[in-house]
């Protein structure tokens, strides 16, 4: 097994932290932009894309601030986290993504997040 590389990307999103949090922490919110469908039982989330399912455990969350998931089939300590950051001066809201990918899939993983977050911005009516 190859070691995964941690990467971080930041997206400015024109939405309140409270609204954004609903879209990153709830099955209904995540179904709007991240996956075709999302179901949850307590901290276990099932993400469905084109008929295939992936299970993730919500490791941590803090209301209006961040959510952290780990894919069930992971054999390492990798996770993905979506953190809401509000600039103290400008009050700009950013979604800060932390994720892991194999070296040969790094560009693809970043592009996937860019596409997903583009869908999120569309749902939110953000530019």
UniProtKB/TrEMBL annotation:
<protein>
    <recommendedName>
        <fullName>START-like domain-containing protein</fullName>
    </recommendedName>
</protein>
<dbReference type="InterPro" id="IPR045736">
    <property type="entry name" value="START_2"/>
</dbReference>
<feature type="domain" description="START-like">
    <location>
        <begin position="1"/>
        <end position="125"/>
    </location>
</feature>
<dbReference type="InterPro" id="IPR023393">
    <property type="entry name" value="START-like_dom_sf"/>
</dbReference>
<dbReference type="Pfam" id="PF19569">
    <property type="entry name" value="START_2"/>
</dbReference>
